[in-house]
Amino acid sequence: MSTAQALLDRVDADALTFNDLPPARLGRDELIRQFRQVRQTTERMVAGLSPEDQNLQSMPDASPLKWHRAHTTWFFETFLLGPHDRQHEPVSPHYAYLFNSYYNGIGEQFPRTRRGLMSRPDSEEIGSYREQVDEAVTRLLSDASNAQLETLAGIVVLGLNHEQQHQELMVTDFKHALSFNPLAPAWTRSPEPRGPAATQAWVDVAGGVVAVGHAGSSFAFDNESPRHEVLLRDFQLARRPVTCGEYAEFIADGGYRDPQLWLSDGWAFIQQERIEAPLYWQREDEQWMLQTLGCWRDLDPDEPVCHISFYEAHAYAQWAGARLPTEFEWETAANGMAVAGHFADCERYHPASAADQGRLVQMFGDVWEWTASSYAPYPGFRPPPGAVGEYNGKFMANQMVLKGGSCATPPGHVRASYRNFFYPGSRWQFSGLRLARDIDG
Fold first, then answer.
1. Residue 428 domain-assigned?
2. What are the pLDDT digits (tens) for 123-160?
3. Long-range pairs for 24-30 at CB < 8 Å and ≥24 separation?
4. Could you list the residue range(s) of the whole structural domain that residue 158 is in?
5. What is the DSSP letter of 216?
6. Which of 8, 74, 251, 395 has its Cα between 20 and 30 A from that of 269?
7. 257 and 133 share a domain?
């Protein structure tokens, strides 16, 4: 019996996602169902938001919600319908320019820094664009021969994962935009504290020659391959991520004022930006407050700290007498663990504490965990041919790897081999840290 069939026999089909099986094994009806589900999730996220809400752009790294909705639609129109549907005519000749993100092989792009200046097409027109492309994709998948469907399935699954990445960006970009509004508007319910954090402890992890990278035939991004071997020393990993309370101790102990703790670029970064705490933290009457998508509220000392840069994560690890794990150490520790945790389906959009379980907890969900690894190609990496090959490979310089997913990551999207990456100064993502250290001797 194949691994794929065993999985189908073991799991309710409704619980499967398009990443649990090889794309060609999904089947026509299941592929259409999951396509509709992801597309509808994006629309539910903007339900109740005004056109003004959807056009906010608070910095060059962020994009308006309306643009995310349009760009993910452009992706399906460009890479699926364009090459494979002779009946489809582009919905607008302007969209190829307006909603292309960075695919130079496709053509020029509207400047990223000015996306918030596009009041037209408006959010209603973007809704119509999505509906037209969804209808065309559904028709294409319904009418395709079985042989054609195998080719189409791989593109659809890539597009769905791409849209899920943008769903997470919609949360983080919109949170950043709302942070500038003095009225402190809420998008969700207030994320209440969940109770005490798991007791912090060190967990031994055996090293040796270990295989890392994606294994099997289910979907993975190209940057997760080729699978290869690395040599690791035995090491220890903290049972859980660093909490807000622990990070507040670092601040109180002068962590942001001690240059000995910081990388040179990190020290220059916090001086230039006048950073004294994680993003969205604010001191009021000797009490730390933080902004959530639900409200401003008192800091919960037991929840994982988030919205910190790689530089801040590195400095905290130095202060704590530890270090950040490499991506390979993190992946080795996570291999074999169920990919379960606090993800976007909870609609809390804020990390929460987790109870003791006598083992590593919160490896997946809650916060992306900075690693000590630079985002670089694996040995033998080759980007796919064509413009779609620009998806990951062109960014493999000057960025750091994060692992595990966050409270804004869609469930089923991540795995142990998943490699997220951001510049070391990025703070608007739900990024935190977990400590590691060497085992003496």
1. yes
2. 999 999 999 999 999 999 999 999 999 999 999 999 99
3. 24/149, 24/150, 24/153, 24/154, 26/153, 26/157, 28/141, 28/142, 28/144, 28/149
4. 3-178
5. S
6. 395
7. no
